[in-house]
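pasting for the record
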Amino acid sequence: MVRTRSTQAHEKVLEATLALFERGIDTTSMDAIAEKSGVSKATIYKHWRDKDALALEALSLVFGLDEVAPRFDSGDLRQDLVDALTYQPSPERQEMKNRMMPHVMAYAARNRKFGEQWRTRVIERPQTRLKDLLQRGIEHRQLVSKINLDTGLALLLGPMIYWHIFVGKKSLTPMPKDLAIEVVSAFWKVYGRESFEKPAGVREE
């Protein structure tokens, strides 16, 4: 497929934006992005209405939000919940993601509107995946029918988010391999129609 000049300009701007964001998002101006990318500001504003819109698209690439997640449908709902909780996009930009995270958190804290848009974009996909799984579990009578989906999501996502934000980022300790299994186990004791067993393929250490 032939890349048009418009497509090339779009990609150059995204690359320049990410390179500059590694030094700080607040301190990066549209003038700096135009200069580094070699694309005029007028052209940049044809692609993005403002810096926040550009930041959302550029950061989405780093965090793999543009990738299509696999369908979690192994036939074992408990295994699917574990897989959904532990799913990570392509690791190709993992180092950049780690370097960028402090800048993203700082910018989101100072820019409320951007922060809300970013949290929605980051959290929406895992929420949707888990809601679909919970609905499937209810329909197949694997989960109790009166489950509150928002409460269920909080029980599943809460511990994972807590680890990422309050434990892993500070201590640089890798997430325990069995954390998701324990989270799903606790969830299943509340909402499952049968007692939780370790998902297929998971062995004791």
